[in-house]
Write a structure and sequence with these properties.
- This protein is an alpha+beta fold.
- Helix content is 26%, strand content 32%.
- It is built from 3 helices and 6 strands, in the order βββαβααββ.
- The chain starts with a strand and ends with a strand.
- One of its GO terms (molecular function) is magnesium ion binding.
- It comes from [Eubacterium] hominis.
- It holds the Pfam family RusA.
């Protein structure tokens, strides 16, 4: 099992952008997505003592913590901080997972198609971050 934390506000995978260059159209990934994927890779490499690329089936759990809005009342702030009120705003959980899963391709596992189980939870917190747990699925 590999467990690590990515500090900062979790970022959703952005849709590819297209640009016309002369007679050709090229696609590129938005810079916010590129920066976040690099941060995920760096956090993984710094946190995991045993860096090995998993070959088999993988299970992943992502707990994404988003900042509590400043306009929130004290009572609601407390409820958000303890998880009684969960994050239901954008970004979507699946897009946050996509950014993290894509970032870990070829460094945590060969390809994100190996992920057979994925759990994503969104919470509020005073410390925005993403806590990621990757487990190799063992069949007995």
């Amino acid at each position: 099992m590999m467990k690590f934390t990515v500090l900062g506000i979790p970022v959703a995978k952005g849709r590819p952008k297209f640009a016309k260059r002369g007679n050709f159209v090229t696609s590129y990934t938005p810079q916010d997505t590129v920066n976040y994927e690099n941060l995920v890779r760096l956090s993984y490499q710094q946190s995991c003592n045993e860096l090995r690329v998993l070959q088999g089936e993988v299970s992943m759990k992502i707990d994404a913590f988003f900042p509590i809005p400043k306009s929130t009342s004290k009572k609601k702030h407390q409820l958000m901080a303890i998880g009684a009120i969960q994050h239901t705003k954008k970004p979507d959980a699946d897009n946050v997972a996509k950014a993290i899963c894509d970032a870990l391709n070829k460094i945590a596992y060969v390809d994100d198609s190996q992920i057979v189980s994925l759990e994503v939870n969104k919470y509020y917190s005073d410390v925005p971050r993403a806590e990621i747990t990757i487990t190799e699925v063992k069949h007995e």
